[in-house]
Every structure is written in structure tokens, then in C-alpha cells.
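stage 2 :: seqdesign
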């Protein structure tokens, strides 16, 4: 067997369809690109159309199959409508990546209902509702991959974890509940756990050079994360060779969590 064929059998996503929320920016954009370049037809979902179009144009220029759906995942109706429109592009997805997320970071004492509700809606309810919409179909077809993007703050509190840390802790529990339900039918459900990654989500924190340097020092690799660091893990978890890995939180964090 040639190495090309072996690699394709292990990791190719040819013929699969992926929906990637938050695929227009940061970690989600890097994951969407990696899945598309590995052969999947990818539909990215977020709100801002210019960013969505730019991400899809870049993939199309590389010969990838990609499309976008503009939707607000902050409301249940918005999520449900987005799911139908996304499934209407290349068909029902085999792979669902939940990367859309917000981190509003008010100090705990100033956390109000609006911040709590907005955080839970985008970070937790949207992944839950998309799972409810797509998970049973994946199980029925005997193959599926659900990948959530969690956070260190699911495991430890720092830099104002507030509602955000709560939403990510629950997201990892959601992966386990989904794995319990659907993994007997070929659907794996896992979470990727980033460290500190320089993306638009962190623009405010990123301007504090001292904190950025301190976070880099907390890793074992010696630097903060890049969106591209998630490409390999996402392709692996989305592919056929990772079928025995489920219900896990997989840290892609340069060793941030290892000490
Ligand atoms: N960067 C980090 O250090 C870090 C660390 C741990 C975990 N994470 C997690 O990684 C994921 C990706 O973060 P990132 O750093 O890549 O952030 P980012 O660059 O800000 O991207 C966030 C994405 O989510 C979309 N989004 C936000 N609110 C939405 C809504 N209401 N409806 C639809 N789409 C929405 C954004 O597009 P629109 O604004 O156009 O809607 C964008 O595509 C998040 O879940 C985040 O919590 C990031």
C-alpha cells in the first residue's frame, strides 16, 4: 500500500460534509479550512457576511467545496433556522464543529442576566440544539463526528472565568452526554480545549502584553496558541481513524494544562 493511500484511508474527509459554526474567524476558520482541504464539503455559520464570504472565497480559491450561512446562533429560532439552511447546502452533515463562542468577561460581581443568557445561548445552547438536530441522523447513518471547542476555563478559573467558564464546563459535559447517546451508533463526540490563542476573541486581553507573555510562559511549548494549531487535531477527530475516541476533552494548549 502506498503511503498516500494509507494516509487517505486514515485521514481523508473526501465525501463527507461538515458544518462549522464560527468558521469565519479564529479557531473555527482554521478548522473549517483544514476540514475542507482534507476533502470535506464545509458550510460555515456565523453572523457577519463579509467575514463569511472572505473565508469561503479563500477556500474556493484553493479548490475546496465551501459555502456560508449567515445566522445569529444567540437565539433558539436562529439556531434552528441556521441548521436547516446549512443542511440544505451539501446535505445532512457528517461532521459538526461548534466553534462559535463569546467571552464577555465582566467581573463576577458585575455579571448580569443579559451576559449570562447571551453566553449560555451561544456557547452552550447552540451546540446542544445543533446536536439535537444533527446527532440522531448521524447515528441512524452509522457515522458522525461532533467536535466542540471548549476552554481551559472549563477546568480552572482565571482571567474572569465568570459565565464563560460555566458554559464551557457544561459544553464538555454535553460532549459526554452526546457520546453516551450516539457513540454506540458510530458518532464520536469530543471537545478540543485550547489554551490562550491570539484571535479576535482576545483582542482586549491581547493588548496587555504582560499578561500575554505570562500566559505564554505558562505553556510548556513556550508560546501562545495559533488558530492553525487546531488543524491537525480537528482533521483527526473528524476522520474515520478516530472512531474509538469519544467523550473526551483533548487539550491543544502547548502544555498549558500539564503543570
Ligand atoms: N482564543 C482563545 O484563546 C480561546 C481559548 C479558549 C477557547 N476558545 C474558544 O474557541 C472558540 C473560537 O474562538 P476564537 O478565539 O476563534 O474567536 P473569534 O475569532 O472571535 O471567532 C468567534 C466566531 O464565532 C462567531 N459568533 C460569535 N457569536 C455568534 C453568534 N451569536 N451567532 C453566530 N456566530 C457567532 C463569530 O462570527 P460573528 O461575530 O460574525 O457572528 C466568529 O466566527 C470559541 O468557542 C471560544 O470560546 C478560544
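stage 2 :: out
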Amino acid at each position: 500500500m502506498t503511503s498516500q493511500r494509507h494516509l487517505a484511508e486514515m485521514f481523508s474527509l473526501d465525501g463527507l460534509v461538515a458544518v462549522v459554526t464560527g468558521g469565519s474567524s479564529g479557531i473555527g476558520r482554521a478548522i473549517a479550512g483544514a476540514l475542507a482541504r482534507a476533502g470535506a464539503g464545509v458550510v460555515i455559520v456565523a453572523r457577519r457576511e463579509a467575514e463569511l464570504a472572505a473565508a469561503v472565497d479563500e477556500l474556493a480559491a484553493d479548490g475546496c467545496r465551501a459555502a456560508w450561512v449567515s445566522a445569529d446562533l444567540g437565539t433558539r429560532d436562529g439556531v434552528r433556522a441556521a441548521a436547516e439552511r446549512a443542511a440544505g447546502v451539501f446535505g445532512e452533515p457528517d461532521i459538526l464543529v461548534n466553534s462559535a463562542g463569546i467571552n464577555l468577561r465582566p467581573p463576577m460581581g458585575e455579571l448580569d442576566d443579559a451576559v449570562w443568557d447571551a453566553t449560555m445561548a451561544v456557547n452552550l445552547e447552540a451546540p446542544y440544539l445543533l446536536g439535537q438536530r444533527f446527532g440522531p441522523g448521524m447515528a441512524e447513518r452509522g457515522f458522525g463526528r461532533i467536535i466542540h471547542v471548549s476552554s481551559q476555563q472549563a477546568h480552572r478559573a482565571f482571567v474572569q472565568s465568570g459565565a464563560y467558564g460555566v458554559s464551557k464546563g457544561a459544553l464538555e459535559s454535553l460532549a459526554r452526554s452526546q457520546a453516551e447517546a450516539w457513540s454506540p451508533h458510530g458518532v464520536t463526540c469530543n471537545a478540543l480545549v485550547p489554551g490562550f490563542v491570539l484571535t479576535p476573541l482576545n483582542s482586549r486581553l491581547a493588548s496587555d502584553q504582560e499578561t500575554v507573555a505570562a500566559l505564554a510562559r505558562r505553556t510548556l511549548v513556550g508560546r501562545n496558541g495559533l488558530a492553525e494549531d487546531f488543524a491537525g487535531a480537528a482533521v483527526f477527530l473528524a476522520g474515520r481513524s478516530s472512531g474509538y475516541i469519544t467523550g473526551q476533552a483533548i487539550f491543544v494548549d502547548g502544555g498549558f494544562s500539564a503543570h
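stage 3 :: structure notes
- The CA atoms of residues 51 and 209 lie 27 Å apart.
- Residues 22, 24-28, 46-48, 51, 72-74, 99-103, 122, 149, 151, 194, 196-197, 199-202 surround NAP (CB under 6 Å).
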